[in-house]
Amino acid sequence: MIARVKTTIFQRDVIRYGSFILLILLAGVLLLMSGVARYPEMLGMAYLSFTFGLRHAFDVDHIAAIDNMTRKMLNDGKNTRGVGFAFSFGHSMVVVLMALVTVLFVEWAKHTLPVFEQIGGVFGTMIAATMLLLLTVVNTFILRGIWREFRQAGRQNTKHTPETAYQQSGIYQFFLKLLQLIQHNWQVAVVGFLFGLGFDTATQIAVLATSATAANAGIAWYTTLAFPLLFTAGMCLMDTLDGMFMSTTYTWIVASSYRKVYYNLILTGISIMAAGFISFVDFVQATRVLWHWHNPLTNWASGLDFNQLGMILVGIFAVTWCIALTMWRVLHLSEKELVGQ
């Protein structure tokens, strides 16, 4: 009965977020069709916008933020399948708003966008770094509790209750309070919006829309909004899949004390290292732009490709998950779990 209810909830979430993404995609296609007959070159721009969205979803800051927020909210007993969609939707709203401003005020945007890009490069990056740092600290305390369970499990075979001593730490309570505003999936959209203020992808799509408007003065302004909507559909698709994958993974892990101790220890450790690393890189990149520091460290940080790092992180999670499932079946760990209970 419980399994059937969980399956129903999962199917409902898939239909809900899948429908949202489909609506965004259809809106983008309809706007595109309103002008593609006269300007067939818009098809190429639309394809680039959609693939930009697919590609940007693999940026390592996206993956680290979605994974760590999923981990934190799941620890609070929340439904986390919509974390990826909410983060991506909020992030893409920056793109849509900037594209709208750009196509309505083309001449103003040509002179102002570089200024916004510089300011956003510092402000947005600092926000992303701070949020990832908070998630790193909170999840580190959670990992500490898991490690204590791991050590206790190695000393005796009795069933263990979760270690809660780490939750009494003043540092843990301080950082946890800063994250208490995030209690539901839709609130993650605010975090995604703040991440998007870096204007990295927003500038790309805005320039693309501007190019279409400037090259063909006859294109209606609403037609050019097809580009940011297609970008949003692509990014939301991949980030939603990422969020659901991580939610399903962690849910399976914490379903029992045995899996929680052994597998959660590994995956949470990977998440913390990724979030901590990206937080450090973001801080270095922000200080480089803010104070014009040029040294080996800042040059190294600014030269990193977040998209490649994101794909590597996805690969690490996928390989770790495959190894975990293989060990679970080959070593018959489910039988040990039943014995432990």
Task: State the main characteristics.
341 residues, mainly alpha, 14 helices, 0% strand
Q: Give the total of beta strands.
A: 0
Number of helices, counting only DSSP H or I runs of 4 residues or more:
14
Class computed from helices, strands and strand pairing: mainly alpha
Query: Percent range for helical residues?
Result: over 70%
Mean pLDDT: 77
Largest sheet: none
Instruction: Give the terminus-to-terminus CA distance.
Output: 21 Å
Sum up the overall morphology in one term: globular
H-E order? HHHHHHHHHHHHHH
Low-confidence stretches: 157-166
Give the assembly state of these chains: single chain
Strand percentage lies at: under 5%
Number of domains: 1
Rounded to an integer in angstroms, the radius of gyration calculated over CA atoms is 22 Å
Task: List the SSEs and their pairings.
Elements: H1 2-36, H2 42-56, H3 60-75, H4 83-104, H5 106-155, H6 170-179, H7 185-196, H8 200-215, H9 221-224, H10 226-254, H11 257-291, H12 296-302, H13 306-330, H14 333-340
Helix pairs in contact: 1-10, 2-8, 2-10, 3-4, 3-5, 3-10, 3-11, 3-13, 4-5, 4-7, 4-8, 4-10, 5-6, 5-7, 5-8, 5-11, 10-11, 11-12, 11-13
Q: What does this 3D model show about the protein?
A:
With 341 residues, this protein is mainly alpha-helical. The protein is built from 14 helices and no strands. The protein is globular and about 70 Å long.
